[in-house]
């Protein structure tokens, strides 16, 4: 169970359980849930089981490359460490149909994806939406 500053938080959405107007979710037997809020959990089930939310962080440590310029001089190309954050959400509309949205590079960091005798900039923030239908 996540705790912090004496408060207990919903294991699904992170809301402080003390702020839940119903005092928390309910188990199948009617008992109060000590892990989930009433918005996420009722009668022993999640209220939105078809919704998935997630994300990730990709870390790249500081890097550099000594490169020879067109003038024959050696120049050091460098980049400090950086973290790229991606988010997604998916909703299962029916048993066969799901819809998903992705946000890559959420904070629109400028970074190099490749350093050699030349540098290649990485992808800027981008968003995609897709639908998937299985037969």
Topology, element by element:
Elements: E1 3-4, E2 7-8, E3 41-42, E4 45-46, E5 51-60, E6 63-68, E7 74-79, E8 82-92, E9 97-104, E10 112-115, E11 119-121, E12 126-133
Antiparallel strand pairs: 1-2, 3-4, 5-8, 6-7, 8-9, 9-12, 10-11
Please, could you describe this protein's structure?
- With 135 residues, the protein is mainly beta.
- The chain has strands at 3-4, 7-8, 41-42, 45-46, 51-60, 63-68, 74-79, 82-92, 97-104, 112-115, 119-121, 126-133.
- The strands form 5 sheets. A 4-stranded antiparallel sheet has the order 5-8-9-12, with no helix packed on it.
- Strand 10 and strand 11 form a beta hairpin.
- The protein starts with a strand and ends with a strand.
- Mean pLDDT is 88; it is low at 1-6.
Short summary:
This protein is mainly beta and 135 residues long. It has strands at residues 3-4, 7-8, 41-42, 45-46, 51-60, 63-68, 74-79, 82-92, 97-104, 112-115, 119-121, 126-133. The strands form 5 sheets. Strands 5-8-9-12 form a 4-stranded antiparallel sheet, with no helix packed on it. Strands 1-2 form a two-stranded antiparallel ribbon. A two-stranded antiparallel ribbon has the order 3-4.
Feature tags:
two-stranded antiparallel sheet; mainly beta; 4-stranded antiparallel sheet; 135 residues; elongated
Number of helices: 0
Please identify the structural class as seen in this structure: mainly beta
Q: Name the poorly predicted regions.
A: 1-6
Distance between the termini: 39 Å
Shape designation = elongated
- Mean pLDDT over the full residue set: 88
What is the count of structural domains?
Answer: 2
Q: Topology as H/E string?
A: EEEEEEEEEEEE
Count of β-strands = 12
Main beta sheet strand tally, sense and closure: 4 strands, antiparallel
- What percentage of the residues does DSSP assign to strands (E)? over 45%
Largest sheet, spatial ordering of strands: 5-8-9-12
Radius of gyration: 23 Å
Helix content range: under 10%
């Amino acid at each position: 169970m996540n705790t912090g500053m004496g408060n207990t938080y919903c294991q699904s959405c992170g809301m402080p359980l003390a702020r839940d107007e119903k005092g928390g979710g309910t188990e199948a037997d009617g008992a109060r849930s000590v892990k989930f809020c009433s918005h996420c959990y009722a009668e022993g089930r999640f209220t939105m089981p078809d919704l998935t939310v997630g994300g990730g962080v990709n870390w790249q440590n500081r890097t550099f490359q000594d490169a020879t310029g067109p003038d024959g001089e050696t120049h050091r190309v460098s980049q400090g460490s950086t973290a790229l954050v991606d988010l997604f959400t998916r909703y299962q509309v029916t048993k066969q149909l799901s819809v998903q949205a992705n946000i890559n590079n959420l904070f629109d960091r400028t970074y190099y994806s490749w350093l050699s005798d030349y540098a290649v900039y990485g992808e800027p923030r981008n968003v995609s939406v897709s639908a998937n239908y299985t037969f």
